[in-house]
User: Fold these one by one.
Assistant:
Number 1:
Amino acid sequence: MGTLTVAALDGEGALDPDDPAWGTVTATEVPLVPVPFDAQLNAYVRAAWTGREYGCSGPVDLTLAEQGDRLLARLSWDGSADPLGEFSDAVALFFPPAAGTAPPVTIGTRDEPVSLWLWRDRLPVQQALPSATQLVAAGPGVFRPGSANAGVSARSSRSGRRWTVVLAGPRQALAARRVGVALWDGSNDERAGIGAVSAAWTEVES
Amino acid sequence: MSAQATTSGDGNDAIEDRGEGVAPPGQVTMVFDLNKCMGCQTCSVACKVLWTREEGEDHQWWMSVNTQPGLGAPKGWEGMGGGWQDGQPVRGHQPSREEFGGGWDFNYQEVLYGGTGNATHLRPVDHGDGTTRWGMNWDEDQGGGEYPNSYYFYLPRLCNHCTHPVCVSACPSGAMYKRHEDGVVLRDESVCQGARFCMEACPYKKIYFNYARNVAQHCILCFPRLEVGVAPACARQCPGRLVFVGSAEDAESPIHKLVHDWEVALPLHPEFGTGPNVFYVPPLAPSRLHEDFSIDEETPRIPPEYLESLFGPKVHAALATLQGELARVRAGGQSELLETLIVYRWTDLFGRYTTDPATLDRTPDRVPVRLGRTSGSTAAS
């Protein structure tokens, strides 16, 4: 995989996934693999998912852009056919610590937790919930709340099965110059550590 | 319920070490005497009005009374899996809002303001979420057996605050924990990510999902009341005086005597392997009637094998003990066991949780509500 270049986008509409400005930036395809079953830390999760297929979603088309001190990430992928069942489709962009050496497939480790920007499709009754949250991830599903004032937000659109989501947050998250992507197929009951994830870090340059 | 706790949990790394099956010394335990439960649902309503009145909680009955035999709530919960087997967690089913029976709503607007007078009657409104097709006690008075030997009894159910809580082990985010000071199983709702593995893993299916807030929720054993010496609302409000609350390790407590000395209080479905801290005195039954309506004194109307399916093989000895004590009293003797179960004074039910809530100082900054993993952690409620 090549290096992803952060584009500079002008205009107020960049948080809109369908804003024409995104058409001027080339997306990078990020291949995904299932979060390794052996990496699942939780005995119940292992018992519940033994023999069940998961993490088959992706790839994700990823575009990064900056507006001042804001980083915008546009992610596009084929979502589930039944997007509002018991579990929701979701996508995350995550950032390793600057000196981190762990691979992305576990979505962080105890020693090298990653900062994760999470967007999750919301039921009508969930519209009062934030559009996106920042979490600290220390392993598959080991997600804890991050800063309440992280300033992460998102907007989404859906055309057929194709989701397009723009996540926005502080540009300093990109300090390590690498990002990972995680994806959950809600129709397959995927959540927490059961999902698809970047097989390798995507290197980023300005 | 919007209470949240501040925790310093270490997430999934500690999960494998949690819930190894040793109850803390102060474990709060409950005993329900099923021979006194009349199914009035006062306990259910006491809990409902106290804890689950907010958005997303309409279908939640942390305390509910099921009629047995029956499918209960959620519908068919006893066959939904979960729990432990041979030290390993068992995959379970996540009950849906529909299986719980949805959140019942009624046509109040139409009845009260519709202008149709007595022509319109109160009726449930089906919002397509299970309402009118199931409910928290849909099996009410259906019972089992054939006339004249039909039978039923009531089974109050709430979180068992298990000694080996599989829900805690199943939580990947580390939001769930068992308090050291009293063994209450709690969830830090600010940490919960709504993964719902706890709902799958709980074999008793007493965990609900709040769709509006994307968090799971369950009985908190009224821990803010316990902390000021007040018994849980379900127990305190029970008009039948059938709910004991206290410590099973206090040798002088009625709970200790019922569970350990007389062994007449048993956990529900002990084979689930979670070590419940809610126990039940099993129901005695009237004798069966022969076809000529003469009494068959040798055969109980509630099939013993059915009670064994609920409370395990120890139920037979428990019933024999109860029947023996009844016979002793009928013969003019005394029975400490029956005196205990009669409960002449309500204060005998609750050990150190007999504080009258009306006497509490409710000045906000004087309400000593503590939320969190240890007695040192604090948060406002």
Number 2:
Amino acid sequence: MNAQVSLTVSDLQGWYGESKALHGMTFEVGAGEVVTLLGRNGAGKTTTLRAIMGLLRKKKGEIRFDGEDVAGRMPEYIARRGIAYCPEERGIFASLTVEENLFLPPVIAQGGMALEDIYALFPNIAERRNSQGTKLSGGEQQMLAIARILRTGANLLLLDEPTEGLAPVIVQQIGAVIRKLKERGFTVLLVEQNFRFASKLADRHYVVEHGRVIDTLTAADVAGNLDRIQSYLKV
Amino acid sequence: MTRAAADNIVEVRGLTKRFHGFAAVSNVDLDVRRRSVHALIGPNGAGKTTFFNLITKVHQPSEGSIRFNGDDITNEDPAHVARRGMVRSFQISAIFPRMTVAENVRIALQRPKGISFHFWRSDSSLSVLDDRVDELLAAVGLEQMRDKTAGGLPYGRKRALEFATTLALDPELLLLDEPTSGLGTEDVERIAALIRSVSANRTIIMVEHNLSIVARLADRITVLARGKILAEGTYSEVSTDPRVIEAYIGGDE
Amino acid sequence: MMAFLGISPQLLFGQLLIGLINGVFYAMMSLGVAIIFGMLRIGNFVHGAQYMLGAFGAWYLLHLPDLFPGLGLPSLGYWWALALVPVAVGLIGAFMERVFIRRVYELEHAYGLLLTVGLTMVIEGLFNVGYGAAGQRYDIPATLKGGVNLGFMFLPYYRLWVIAAGLFVCALTWYIVERTKLGAYLRAATENPNLVRAFGINVPRMLMLTYAFGVGLAGLAGVMAAPIYQVSPQMGQSIIITIFAVVVIGGMGSISGAIFTGLMLGMIEGLTKVFWPQASTTVIFVIMVLVLILRPAGLFGKETASVHAANISMARPNSFLENGRLWLPILSGVGVVLPFLVYPVFGMKIMCFALFACAYNLIFGYVGLLAFGHAAFFGSSAYIAAFTAASWGFPPEFAVLSGMTVATVMGAVFGWLAIRRQGLYFAMITLALAQLVYFYALQAPWTHGEDGIQSVPRGYLFGFIDLEDTMNMYYFVLAVFLIGFAAIYRIGRSPFGQILKSIRENELRAISLGYSTDRFKLLAFTLSAMFAGLAGATKAIVFQIASLADLYFTTSADALLMTLIGGVGTLLGPIVGAIVVVAMQKEFATLGAWVVVVQGAAFVLCVLFLRKGVVGTFEDWLATRSESKRNAAGYTADLAAKGAE
């Protein structure tokens, strides 16, 4: 594991109204790592990301980012500290063009990707920059949702099921993108159900069930433990 | 109507729903056999809840048709569909929070009596329903709480109350949207037992994430992925289907 | 063409020009209302008052030397006003957002509207105190005096300027919202504020700036309007209701839609003035009705996400304060002895308004629909009762029944129209429909315009009880009030009332149980209109007059205020509220125009600090007290049990 820690989540509990979704999530993400939260539907993975981002109001526990506890902070503060969020539903704005969507998140620090680099990474987006955001295909919308958080200079990317509902060829492209992001030094916390996809990218996997981490595997553990992983995720 | 149709309580053909050009459900054909427990499963974003909202007419389909008991209900409004005997539950407990537990159930029981527009009568005229209310509350283990305000119940009890209210209509077809989500183990077991006990003489369609519940209760399972049907069959059939495993765990690149 | 059938082009184009000018103002105003609604989800009723502030701002700048003699301030003319006043009004808007409006974002939409209604009453009331009903003159700036003769008509330069400048401002606003980065933030935050916050954008600050911008637009419109219309405290009052109708017609979906709808309706209004002058004040409301029938979502409306009825009832069902079987005899007893304690006329006034508020509570409290046009039922019924008693010699009981019947039918029709749209739109539609009735009564010959129907005979009840006798009259009103109160209580506690309650608590669930909730809402609305009519007709007989005030939106606001002060959805709240409001009106009667200010302040304070109302708060207090008593008793019992061991 890297010496430098980017994010530490300790004993995080969270509620949607009265329904408790997180029962003490504990995990950490080292700087420059790609880490996944794996688990079935309803395990609490998305809720965890929302809690980190400050979008889940009712919560207890500690969320440390670059040493600072941000658990009680507003989303706009957390974003400006350097965490960027790509939601599961993608959140492409229908009333904005592709380019407006891309430029919406404000630059919060030096070191974000340059526009040319982003367009090089996502050629489709460059082509369709003047279309309405939601006129894009599902895969293009996903690309746009990732692309728009790369400009800002945020270092920790929270990606919520980027492969959801996408065709295999698009899933491959997204995998390639995440690999390039890792090379560029981004830290990525990835929520996934698609284990085969995640296993090729991540340094570490946390298996989540009923709102807590029930198992941890490093990339090296994966090959020898396929059955164990299957039992967590399969039908 | 064909012979086969009589055995199917629901027949869905070519059902499609597009939001902003994105097809959340696309070209789904589905038959649900009468008196079966039919589960809909699939990864997030597969279109399960959208499908549910389509057949209960909360959403209007973009294309396709829905038949219930042989009648085309594609263009009916949700209240009508409910009156035909197709009643749904919700993901988030749907109760009337500031009414008592007994009143919650009574709201449902009162509908078939045909007095719901009677604004001149006293509500004591509803007391004839009390026995049935108590029966239903007993069935879900809420008889001790009949006069409590529903909003004050613990979450698991609210789900049970919602269940009792739904059952009060004695629906021919019961649609359960994630009946066990957000519940503790004990409550999950209670709800599972309830589903089993009421499934005897009616049809149930449920969306459920808890696969052990699905394995135990469902006669038939439809797996949705990306808005389309991926597989259909019994639990042992779908759970070994490579396409299903791929959808859940991910395919090879 | 019809246009030349005896109509001079001078008149035609003249009116079209006036229509276009009105249209420019409608466009600028509805633009602000639509932007504010889109971002803040607030129905900004105070927009009209903010427009009036703009006009007064211009007037103040002109009269600086007179207002502050000795300071040597210069008189600042139109162009200064155009630059300074919108900014100043915008700042006032920012201040209002910060201090008041921000507090209701997380509450039901209804409170946003109520709060801005209260603020409107305070602002307009204060200006009324200062300047009365008379308008102030504001001259056209010297540079824009005169005009050009186009041959077929004379075109004053100032009007040309207003049209050009107004269109430019609309286009600029469109550009800012649709084409700039700032506008992209605005559009994105309108769609999904949480995600925008998660990108690091300070959405609360954006909300404040958006409100300030929308309000600034109203201020600008006010400055531009000052030389055309008279600068008066009332100038914003009727325009805001028209603007709400414009917004209902256009739908709040698009900026260009708001601009187009505003301009178009102004022109149609102008044309109507040429061909059918009497209808010109109502034409926009009639168009609204047609649009609601033919295209319920509005011309440019996108179907809004389903907005459920607002659950704002403050009643605790088990409280003894909610037990009608207990309170009906108590109220009867109090009612019988009351005329020996207070002036009977005062008691009758309270009972009429208490019944009105109880009727209003039936739709607002029991069902959770923010109706804002109950003056239409109260006032129409008053007019019908007064007219049938005065002109046709109806005995009082038939006069009252006639009024009630008309109110009921109107309730059914208005309800049928308004229920097509949800949430804030429902309030806007009922308000606009009531305004339609108001303008009708202003012009129809049988209502006698500003005078109203006066000297209505009280007559003989059942042919032999002389109602000219105050005590007879009083006990008749008491009987009417008690019957109404009992009937409304029964409706609330009937099988029908149970369904109303379930709709208020969780409409989606009620639908999924098979109830076509719109039908229940419509019946409740009709019943509510019927009892409002009963109150209005009785009032007309008691006070022997039906006047325009009965139909004006302030009467609707009174019903709302009474219900709010007393406690929305409670049994006794409307009565308590009526006592408070009627007493307040009596106490402050000597203060004249201040009454409105006090009422507006009461509105604001209730929305911010006393949402449960007097009765609701009391019921809460009783419940908490009995709870803690029970706990204490349990604790003592525990101790006793332990001691026994």
